Amino acid sequence: MSIEIRKITANIGARVSGVDISQPLDEGTSTALREALNTHKALVFDDVNLDDETQQAFVRHFGDVTTAHPTVSSVAGVPNVLPVDSERGRAANHWHTDVTFVLTPPQATTLRSVTIPPYGGETLIASSAAAYRNLPEPLRQFADTLWAEHTNDYDYAVPDEEIDDEQAAQRAQFTSIKYRTVHPVVRVHPLTGERGLFIGGFAQRIVGLSPGESRKILDLLQAYVTRPENVLRHRWSENQLVVFDNRITQHYAIDNYDGLPRRLHRVTVAGDVPVGVEGKESYSIEGDASHYTSVAAPVAAPAAAA
C-alpha cells in the first residue's frame, strides 16, 4: 500500500489515506503509522469500515488494549470498548488527557464515529508539546520542576445541587474507585524525547502548594495548551477514526449539538509510567488500576530530551 500523510495544521494532526485499516497490517505499514503518530500527535482516517472487533484489531498494532475504563462500564459484551455517548452526559466536555488519574495512563486513544449529529459535536485535540515549546524560558524551567496530583474525584464545574439523579449516578460511578496519582507537570515522551505539559482536567494540585496557588499555576500553563495555534478542531463525519497520542496531547468534546444523538466508540492502548525531565517516575497514592491496564514495557528516552 502507498500511504499518504497530509498535515492538517502546523502543530498537530495529519490525514492518512492509502491504507485499509480494517485489514491486518504488515510490519512496514504499522511502523509507518506509529512514526506518523509520533510526528503529528493525531491521525485522521476516513471511510474506515470498522466495527468494534476490527477497531480493536487495528489498535493492537500500537500495543496492548486496555479495558474500557477503570470505573465506567463498556459497550455491552465488549469489555475493551467505551461508548462515548451523549446519553451518558457530557463528562468529556473539559480539557483533559485520558485517565491520567492512574499510574499508567493510556499511551494512545482511538475514537470511531458511530452516530454523529447533523451539526456540532467536534472534538478538539491540542499538542502539549507545542504548548511546552511556547513557554517563556523562565516559565519552562519552573514547569520542569513541578509535580501534580491527578484524581478522578476532581472539582466539578457544576455544583452537586444543580445536577439531576441520572447525572449524580454517573458521577458516583465515575468516582466509585478513587484514584490519586502524582505525575510530572512536564512529561518526557518515551519514544521521541519531546517534552509536553502533562496536566489537564484531572490535575488538581501542584505538590507542595496550596489549592489556590495550584489553580493559578495550572491555569497559567493550561492557557498555553489551548492556544488556537496548538489545537486541531476535528469535525466528525461518518465512518471516521481518529487516533491521538495520549502522552502528549489533550482533548475536549464540544457540547454544541443541542442534545442530539452523538456516539463514538473509544479503544485505548496500554501505557507506561510517565517520567519527568530528571528521570523520576510517577507514583500512585491511592487506587488500584490493575483491572484496567497492563503496564507497557518501558522505553528508554533519547539521551537529549527535546
Automatic annotation (TrEMBL):
Cellular component annotations (GO), alphabetically ordered: cytoplasm
Cofactor(s), names only, from the UniProt record: Fe(2+)
Family matches, as SUPFAM superfamilies: Clavaminate synthase-like (SSF51197)
Pfam family, one: TauD
Top-rank taxon, per record: Bacteria
GO molecular function: 2-oxoglutarate-dependent dioxygenase activity; metal ion binding
Keyword Cell wall biogenesis/degradation assigned: no
Keyword terms of this UniProt record: Dioxygenase, Iron, Metal-binding, Oxidoreductase
Bilayer-spanning residue ranges: none
Domain TauD/TfdA-like, first and last residues per copy: 4-268
Signal peptide residues on this chain, from the entry's feature table: none
Membership in a protein family: Belongs to the TfdA dioxygenase family.
Protein name (database record): Taurine dioxygenase
